[in-house]
Protein 1
Amino acid sequence: MAILELTKVTGGYTRKPVIQDVSFSLNKGELVGLIGLNGAGKSTTIKHIIGTLLAKSGDVHLNGVTLQENMEKYRTSFSYIPETPVLYDELTLKEHLELTAMAYGLDELTLKERSALLLKEFRMERRLNWFPSHFSKGMRQKVMIMCAFLVDPPLYIIDEPFVGLDPLGIQSLLDQMNVKKQEGASILMSTHILSTAERYCDRIILLHEGRVRAQGTMDELRAIFHMPDATLDDIYIVMAKEQDHATH
Ligand SMILES: Nc1ncnc2c1ncn2[C@@H]1O[C@H](COP(=O)(O)OP(=O)(O)OP(=O)(O)O)[C@@H](O)[C@H]1O
């Protein structure tokens, strides 16, 4: 069974749809890249998955249920790392981790064990009692990343994770993603860093003007675009120059 399944999702912010007929799924243990130009609809698609926007038509199943069918199961089946960190100014790093643990019903021991590993991995051990106002941009992002991994859900949704992290931070994140994948979790990641997406993603979904233009492994994409030796950058540029696919 797919952990995440979008079926013909059409939606947006106003009556005019931003994404149309978006269908794709993620299987257990897969890392899938959501790729597209600025304004293609990546964040809008993610908002429909996490439930901040509701589809005008079509549906999203997560862990076998829609948000309407079982809100509790749906919400606890994923964690989300937004593009721009959202932190509580009046809570320390330690309190952010504690709050996340409480929201997801983690016991004290699990919180202690998992946070010790994450704090070490992301080199934040000495910042436990700091407030967000003293964090750099990358550190703020690391707080969100640590909270997401603390939960240990079956699905991670990560919006443009690499901007703002230093190379060590990026490597730590990729390592964590890999560990979780090995344990069977699935990851949906949107990014503009195509070389990283090409290297790490099992499959790629190419969004263009609110629609899925193509999806598959790199080899499948090369076949679809008739570009046998192409990199993801090459394919992306060809897709970006297509004028009329939105109408087909
Ligand atoms: N809050 C909003 N209200 C109305 N329209 C919006 C809102 N946010 C985004 N849009 C519109 O939806 C379309 C898709 O935007 P979206 O943010 O999903 O793109 P994206 O693929 O994530 O782009 P980027 O790579 O720049 O982050 C754009 O035309 C944008 O103007």
Protein 2
Amino acid sequence: MIQFDKVTKNYDSDLKALHNVTLTINQGECFGVVGESGSGKSTFLRLLNQLERPTSGTITVAQQVLATLSERDIKKRQQQIGMIFQQFNLLHNQTVAQNVALPLKLRGKMEPARVLDMLAFVNLTHKADAYPRELSGGEKQRVAIARALVIEPKLLLCDEPTSALDAQHVDEVLSLLEKIHSQFQTTMVIVSHELAVIKRMCQRAAIFNRGELVGITAVKSAENAQQYDSYEARAMEILQQ
Ligand SMILES: Nc1ncnc2c1ncn2[C@@H]1O[C@H](COP(=O)(O)OP(=O)(O)OP(=O)(O)O)[C@@H](O)[C@H]1O
């Protein structure tokens, strides 16, 4: 579904946020992206949802080379991508139902029944008229997930989806992401510095270090407490167990 071919991204300076990255993400896959701070994870996501363009190389999504698309087609593509963030990014002066309805409203659609379906899917029907300040962190993230799903995305991008949550809410949100993956076969890309999250959710993961793709590994279960020389060695070892 997604192909990066020798993709490099420089921002203003000479520093390469991503350097010569080639990888493929399959349709229906849950793909993890790990790496230390500044390794290029967010840049990878921003290229995927076309908020940034590569300095060189090509990105192909659903057999379409992104660079060949018009602004209008890029906007259309972006509307098929759902995104969830570490800090939820809810509108605080809007109710839960209004937050979930927002992507539909932006497309000029009013589908209250669909909003209610989504709230039921994330188990928050009873909070439809509440405001974000009245919710727990886990509930806020579930609202954000309902908002991402309301457009029936082909691709769901998750940027540190559990990093702002305590353990109980982490489980709640991951269970919901698992349910989405099994029910809708949505292709998912999860960026997280928490290896346990990637381990639970993903079939494969890419490991980045300073903009370089160090490797892609199949993910197996159960973590051990061994000491490693570097973050990359630990990531590679733990994810392969
Ligand atoms: N808009 C920007 N302008 C200039 N440099 C940037 C910009 N965004 C990111 N960078 C730089 O690109 C490199 C990769 O950043 P990126 O945000 O992709 O890393 P990350 O792995 O997501 O980090 P974190 O885990 O801390 O969010 C970093 O050196 C960063 O300073």
